[in-house]
């Protein structure tokens, strides 16, 4: 798969986490992005195209300040595990930037 947002970094395969892209910035800084986070990013790209580059840059900045990051959809239910990494959700990036997506989903009006 082509990850345009992070094409400037080396993409390495991790046999322990074969489904999660692993990007290496340098010998001290690297990060994983779970596939569902890319789906979430596409949602932000559609709804906030004017701020999308800011989101990507903020993700990179967080890696630079924390060194080892795994971006997960839900930090309580992640599937990529690596010792020494911190887990961040996309909302950890977008909320401080005051970029929000309102969840308008709701249950059915038709009960059984």
Summarize this entry quickly:
This protein has 112 residues and is of the alpha/beta class. It has helices at residues 35-47, 52-66, 90-94; strands spanning 10-12, 22-24, 30-33, 68-72, 86-89.
Write structural notes for this entry:
It is a single chain. The chain has helices at residues 35-47, 52-66, 90-94; strands at 10-12, 22-24, 30-33, 68-72, 86-89. It has a 5-stranded mixed sheet with strand order 1-2-3-4-5. By secondary structure, the chain is α/β, with parallel strands linked by helices. The N and C termini lie far apart (42 Å). Strand 2 (22-24) and strand 3 (30-33) form a beta hairpin. It has 3 helices and 5 strands, in the order E-E-E-H-H-E-E-H.
Question: Which quaternary structure do these chains form?
Answer: single chain
Structural class: alpha/beta
> Order of strands in the sheet with the most strands?
1-2-3-4-5
Overall mean pLDDT stands at: 92
Low-confidence stretches: none
Number of strands: 5
Order of helices and strands: EEEHHEEH
Helix proportion of residues, in percent? 25-40%
State the main characteristics.
112 residues, 5 strands, 29% helix
